[in-house]
Amino acid sequence: MKNISTPKIIFTFFALxxxxxxxxxxxxxxxGILFAITLDNPFxxxxxxxxxxxxxxxxxxxxAGMNLKIIAHVGMHGLLYxxxxxxxxxxxxxxxxxxxxxxxxxxRLITIGTAICGGSAIAAFSxxxxxxxxELSVALGTVFMLNAAALFLxxxxxxxxxxxxxxxxxWSALAIHDTSSVVGATLSYGHQALEIGTTVKxxxxxxxxxxxxxxxxxxxxxxxxxxxASKVKFPWYIVGFLSTAALVTWIPALTEAGHTLDHLxxxxxxxxxxxxxSNLNRATIRSVGLQPFLQGITLWILVAxxxxxxxxxxxxx
Length: 317
Known about the structure:
Number of domains: 1
Helix content: over 70%
Distance between the termini: 57 Å
Number of helices: 15
Order of helices and strands: HHHHHHHHHHHHHHH
Radius of gyration: 19 Å
Number of strands: 0
Shape: globular
């Protein structure tokens, strides 16, 4: 017992507390952030890998609450504005990076994280462009703080504007960086919002691979010593999510088990959001710096406001 410090005991208590059904995703994230800022995460050294694994399990489990036919319909229905949105975001992000004189690799990572899937896209692209550790840290820190803000701001804006669940789910998928934060924001808004938000976001995340390969070819053409395409990290949670959804959709006997798995996955996601929040410590905040953060928040505000406008006024549905 002598080896167990007080911060570890308190951390473990709060982490387990988030498994209680009435603890919301936003509260869990806030609890983690407050703990990190005041006491520092005593398990920070081992947290990154654990979070990645828990996200994989949680998102895979969430597939049990989805219908594969709906997923296919929503994915194909949103193909045009997904491609358009990614292209415009990358173009605008590149311009902002040059305007604010952000390091090229750091600017690329922030831009691609905003355009596709936050930390997952950043992690996949970093070996392709041979990003340095501090560039990766700054990009992840920028996206991470904006994800935390989105979890609180988006539901408030959605309720204030009386967005339907379908509208809110679509907006969250288009404007929030990480899949985990899309799930966190839509979780309390309603099941339809969660279903649409997760589906559209995962369909968007599938663009990580072709864009990574395209970047590799582009850099090779410029005779840059980029990493080979074989080192690109594939987002396996997409496969897990779709596989679980397929099983529940096509095997009716698994419906009841699917509901149970979906419920457990949602609680696991809330638990994971606490762990994510606990990584946002003072050092991470300081590492971001002003110029990259200005690029990230400006790009995010432009993407979020423009996507909200076209959804609110019915231009895309």
